[in-house]
């Protein structure tokens, strides 16, 4: 997706958030190619990013609360300081992603692909115990 189109989608999404869905439009970025995009600090609460390619994107400090990132490719993404409360990461590829402990607030990690460095915070959070066996761990 080109930068101009992405900016338009994010602007309409901001209006949608601020109007509690009465105006604007929820960001539909399902399957979007956002490889390397700078989304740092973006407000993506409730955005639809199913299957989006976010490889090496910067989501530093972004608000992804209740976003739908199922099957998203997040390898190499910087999620430092991002709000991931109630995010759905079912089947997402997080290998090589830079994350902080906020990731423990995610809604689902079922069948997610993670790196070994992610295991300590996943194991410490009982919320993920039922999905732990389904994680696909790589070195």
What do these coordinates show?
This protein is mainly α and 139 residues long. The protein has a single domain, classed as 3 Solenoid (Pectate Lyase C-like), CATH 2.160.20.80. The protein has a two-stranded parallel sheet. α2 links the parallel β1 and β2.
Write the layout of secondary structure elements.
Layout: H1 3-18, E1 113-115, H2 119-124, E2 136-138
Parallel strand pairs: 1-2
In short:
The chain has two helices and two strands, in the order H-E-H-E. It is mostly helical and about 140 residues long.
User: Strand pairing plus helix content: what structural class?
Assistant: mainly alpha
Q: Main beta sheet, described?
A: 2 strands, parallel
Question: Which strand-content bin applies to the residues?
Answer: under 5%
Could you say what the CATH architecture is? 3 Solenoid
> How many DSSP-defined strands?
2
Side-by-side strand order of the widest sheet: 1-2
State mean pLDDT (0 to 100 scale): 82
